[in-house]
């Protein structure tokens, strides 16, 4: 959002700030008002404009259609008006013919010309991001391995959900398990996320959620420890989901319909409009519905999303945004757990991928309701106060059937145990963040400081459940996997989990300091308090004054390249007691990193190569034969934990106006204190490539995903998935500025592979599938 302070600009001037690096496409203007027409040109080109409002009064615009060149579009638009347009400092300047150029260097504005939004930029990269430090840093200035999954890249790949998105990030392993996934990065569990920069520990209903991405502009990814902004968590990766806003001062929107494999149908509408004549109050509504079956027998899924946001420029220096979100995800005929990896004779199973252990009475439903509020007030010049609040409720309800054991190859009789389970749960989150952003200039060098306070709370309001066991001995076949016929037990939810609440507060300070023209120091610290409290008092614990430092040093080698070194860490509370009865201090994950970053083609392409090492301290290690005083709990002592080290390469952006590229490669090794490999269900080497080339109205794209060998278990029950590659394809045709048809094909060569593995069990990945979508923009 760009705000204008007229007192800083010559009287009568108005400025519109937009978000991109270069022109976004052909120019079509139908309004008769010259003032509105110039705003439309600015939005399409993603360039700000300056004009004395008095010279536009009463003037009409010439309609233009499909003009590809910005200068030509402006020339035709202004023809006969006595005005002309020039491009100065990447800004459109409208003036009387023969007038003097504007002195742009005397203008102070509230936001830089480049915002972080990626909508309509058509780019695979972003000019800046705030996830690592809350400072407005470019990717090159951020002293960690980072990337931004932009709106255009997600759209081209046909990625619409959180779980699918994770699969497109090299360095993250999914290990899918029924509706649940267990993602890891750099050898560590991914156990927190951020929404608009505020940490959340329930992105949906635990790991079984699959958040729809239609309400998000982009996902910012920070590899390694991200404790400065999140406080508690593991040092693997931080993912920040940035919501869409109502930025348009004109009525516009998109309508999309899609159809795909296994009777998949989807409908989406995204409409933005000004809510007053001046456009200082703007609204946006996104609504989506999906129905689909699956390659799995009996599986059905429906998804409903409604998101509304109102953005208000209350004054020239005051901004308020209010938003609401609703998502309902219903899944019937679902699997719980995987399939046996071995027959009872010890040979490896080879089921059809459509096979699951399920019944028509099984389901796994989730619902999210959220309210968001953001407030921004400029206090003096560019110094701003920023307040954010979110209230989220996450419901889940299940009825599940599980089989564990082996199956006879000939008869299909399962020997093992069968569980039936139902539950109904509600989590309630309330998060707030308040910070000051203070840009300043000293000795002709730019600096920025942020200081703030954040509080997050997550409460399990209730979790009512029940479970029955049909068989608990391996010698009792109670299910036939070739002809599953298990009656619905209609269990009553007669057991309740202990309600509990986790609260975290933190004070943080971070700064970007230009030590010289070529040197920048990024530094900061956070002091956190963390508290767990249950209604019964069981497990209550509290950790205070946990200090989380952040330090990075960047040196610009030349116009295009920088090298950096950084140290970051993060803490992870634990529930193990020492021999004297006190809870052990939190685990600390320390992240050391160095690398080189580059910007090319007028900063439209970002590249980085990084080396990292992560060390864990204070990990609980059992003390044999010792118990916490007065309890039967085993006692533990603090010890060294997992050590992880590796290398990552990222290249994202545009090579030319017609050629976009997203490439990432990650390799790591993680071992515990005894030098044993950990998280062996995570691929040690991962690569993702997606590229698109546009020829006139036709766009051709494709991608490759590589995952190295993973394994689980040992001996005769060891399950192995060898290294594999998946290929994807995209073809799009843009009939005009309004209509586009796109085809996405995933797993092009129909590779059969395990997407998740465990001891003596596995989950198949999806076979080849396709989606055809048609979008109309107005």
Automatic annotation (TrEMBL):
PROSITE patterns (alphabetical): TONB_DEPENDENT_REC_2, TONB_DEPENDENT_REC_3
Example GO biological process: siderophore transport
Subcellular location: Cell outer membrane
GO molecular function, one term: siderophore uptake transmembrane transporter activity
Membrane topology: Multi-pass membrane protein
All residue ranges annotated as the Secretin/TonB short N-terminal domain in the record: 47-97
InterPro entries (alphabetical): Beta-barrel_TonB, Beta-barrel_TonB_sf, Plug_dom, Plug_dom_sf, Secretin/TonB_short_N, TonB-dep_rcpt-like, TonB_rcpt_CS, TonB_sidphr_rcpt
Main location group: membrane
GO terms under cellular component: cell outer membrane
Pfam name, any one: STN
Signal sequence segment: 1-23
Keyword terms: Cell outer membrane, Ion transport, Iron, Iron transport, Membrane, Receptor, Signal, TonB box, Transmembrane, Transmembrane beta strand, Transport
Family according to the record: Belongs to the TonB-dependent receptor family.
Name of the protein in question: OUTER MEMBRANE RECEPTOR FOR FE(III)-COPROGEN
Organism lineage: Bacteria, Pseudomonadati, Campylobacterota, Epsilonproteobacteria, Campylobacterales
Gene name of the record: chuA
């Amino acid at each position: 959002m760009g705000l204008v302070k007229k007192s800083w600009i010559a009287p009568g001037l108005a400025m519109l700030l937009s978000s991109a690096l270069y022109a976004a496409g052909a120019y079509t203007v139908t309004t008769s008002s010259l003032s509105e027409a110039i705003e439309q040109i600015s939005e399409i080109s993603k360039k700000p404009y300056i004009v004395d409002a008095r010279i536009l009064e009463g003037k009409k615009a010439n309609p233009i259609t499909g003009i590809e060149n910005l200068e030509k579009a402006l020339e035709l638009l202004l023809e006969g008006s006595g005005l002309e347009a020039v491009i100065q400092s990447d800004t459109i300047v409208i003036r009387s013919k023969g007038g003097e150029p504007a002195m742009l260097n005397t203008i102070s504005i509230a936001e830089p010309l480049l915002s972080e939004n990626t909508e309509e930029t058509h780019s695979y990269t972003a000019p800046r991001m705030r996830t690592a430090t809350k400072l407005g840093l470019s990717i090159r200035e951020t002293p960690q391995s980072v990337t931004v999954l932009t709106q255009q890249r997600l759209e081209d790949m046909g990625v619409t959900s959180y779980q699918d998105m994770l699969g497109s990030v090299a360095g993250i392993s999914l290990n899918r398990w029924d509706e649940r996934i267990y993602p890891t990065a750099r050898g560590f569990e991914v156990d927190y996320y951020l929404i608009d920069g505020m940490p959340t520990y329930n992105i949906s209903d635990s790991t079984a959620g699959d958040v729809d991405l239609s309400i998000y502009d982009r996902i910012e990814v920070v590899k390694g420890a991200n404790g400065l902004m999140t406080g508690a968590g593991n040092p693997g990766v931080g993912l920040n989901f940035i919501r869409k806003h109502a930025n348009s001062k004109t009525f516009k929107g998109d309508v999309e319909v899609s159809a795909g494999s296994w009777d998949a149908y989807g409908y989406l509408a995204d409409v933005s409009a000004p809510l007053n004549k001046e456009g200082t109050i703007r609204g946006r509504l996104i609504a989506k519905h999906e129905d689909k079956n699956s390659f799995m027998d009996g599986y059905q899924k429906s998804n409903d999303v409604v998101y509304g946001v109102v953005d208000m420029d209350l004054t020239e220096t005051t901004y308020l945004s209010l938003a609401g979100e609703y998502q309902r995800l219903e899944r019937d005929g679902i699997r719980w757990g995987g399939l046996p990896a071995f027959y009872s004779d010890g040979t490896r199973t080879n089921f059809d991928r459509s096979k699951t252990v399920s019944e028509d009475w099984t389901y796994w439903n989730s619902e999210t309701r959220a309210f968001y509020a953001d407030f921004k007030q400029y206090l003096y010049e560019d110094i701003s106060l920023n307040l954010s609040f979110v209230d989220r409720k996450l419901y889940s309800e299940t009825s599940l059937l599980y089989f564990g054991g082996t199956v006879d190859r000939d008869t299909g009789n399962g020997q093992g145990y069968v569980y039936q389970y139902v539950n109904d749960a509600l989590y309630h989150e309330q998060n707030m963040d308040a910070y000051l952003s203070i840009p300043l200039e000293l000795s002709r060098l730019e600096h920025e400081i942020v200081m703030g306070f954040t509080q997050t709370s997550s409460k399990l309001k209730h979790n009512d459940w029940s479970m029955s066991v049909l068989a608990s001995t391996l010698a009792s076949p109670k299910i036939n996997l070739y002809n599953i016929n298990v009656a619905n037990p209609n269990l009553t939810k007669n057991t309740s989990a202990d309600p509990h609440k986790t609260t975290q507060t933190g004070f943080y300070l971070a700064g970007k300091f230009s030590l010289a023209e070529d040197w920048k120091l990024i530094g900061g610290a956070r002091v956190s308090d963390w508290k767990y409290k249950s209604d019964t008092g069981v497990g209550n614990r509290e950790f205070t004054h946990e200090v989380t430092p952040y330090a990075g040093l960047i040196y610009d080698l030349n116009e295009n390249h920088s090298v950096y070194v950084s140290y970051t860490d993060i803490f992870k509370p634990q529930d193990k007691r020492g021999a004297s009865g006190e809870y052990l201090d939190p685990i600390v994950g320390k992240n050391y990193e160095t690398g080189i970053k580059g910007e090319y083609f007028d900063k439209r392409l970002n590249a980085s190569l990084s080396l990292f090492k992560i060390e864990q301290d204070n990990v609980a290690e059992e003390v044999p034969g010792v118990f916490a005083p007065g309890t039967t709990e085993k006692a533990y002592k603090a010890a060294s934990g997992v050590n992880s080290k590796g290398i990552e390469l990222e290249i994202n952006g545009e090579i030319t106006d017609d050629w976009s590229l997203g490439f990432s490669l990650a390799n790591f090794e993680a071992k515990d204190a005894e030098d044993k490999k950990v998280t062996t269900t995570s691929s040690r080497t991962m690569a993702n490539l997606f590229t698109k080339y546009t020829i006139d109205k036709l766009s051709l794209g494709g991608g490759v995903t590589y995952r190295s060998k993973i394994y689980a278990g040992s001996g005769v029950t060891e399950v192995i998935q060898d290294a594999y590659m998946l290929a994807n394809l995209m073809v799009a045709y843009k009939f005009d500025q309004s209509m586009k048809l796109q085809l996405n094909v995933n797993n092009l060569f129909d590779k059969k592979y395990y997407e998740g593995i465990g001891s003596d069990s596995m989950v198949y990945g999806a076979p080849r599938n396709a989606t055809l979508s048609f979008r109309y923009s107005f």
